Amino acid sequence: MYFVCLSFWKNYHVVLIRYRSSFTSRLIQAPETLQNYYTTIKNYILSFKGVKAKSSWNYENFNKGRVQLVKLNIKGKTLIVNLNLDPKEFNINKYHFIDCSEKPKFAKVPMMMKVRSARALKYTLELIDEVMLKNGIERGETPEVDYHMPYETNEALAERDLVKVIVPEGVTVDEGSIVFTVRH
Q: How far apart are the first and last CA of the chain?
């Protein structure tokens, strides 16, 4: 979040500017532990035969044909993994998942796991095995691809169109504007 101070002949106006981050930009700015979890999970999913990854602005999808198997997202310091499993079939006391079946955008992947620890990673990999077993997908060789990315600032990511700068309507920010950074 940034505040911009625009000067108009000694009058100052403070305007709030926000950033809308893409999945890739959130991954770039994620801590190393989250990037480790992401690398492990992505390599594991892609080890199954015929599974393809497709990245969009908000998340990364893993499909086999037209069947959505897993959806990855990042919120803060947490890797969110949505799985194509019925939450009613699993023990919530063991897996600590969230049932998202009531939300339309998670209709195909209603079981949500939050990966913040090694144990959550282990349980998520177990559940990925269940997804693949349910869909009859065999496991092949695990690729050893490193998906770690070096950290970049919001400004650098905005130049690469990985972050959208949201400015209130009618306001233009030029080189004469003073920008104050505010972290919450």
A: 8
Q: If DSSP codes are grouped into helix, strand and coil, which group holds residue 137?
A: coil
* Helices 118-134 and 32-46, packing angle to 10 deg: 20
Mean per-residue pLDDT of the chain: 87
* pTM score of the predicted model: 0.84
Cα torsion 65, 122, 124, 76: sign: negative
Going 124 to 63 to 85 to 56, the CA torsion angle's sign is positive
Nearest alpha-carbon partner for 5 in 172, 182, 178:
178
CA 130/CA 87 separation, integer angstroms: 12
pLDDT tens, position by position, 2-20 = 555 555 555 666 677 788 8
Q: What is the dihedral of CA 96, 101, 106, 111, to 10 degrees?
A: 20
Only one residue has tokens 């069947």, namely 67
Q: What is the pLDDT of residues 62-119, one digit of tens each?
A: 999 999 999 999 999 999 999 999 999 998 889 999 999 899 999 999 999 999 999 9
Residues 115, 122: Cα–Cα separation, whole Å? 9
Cβ pair 132, 141 in contact under 8 A:
no
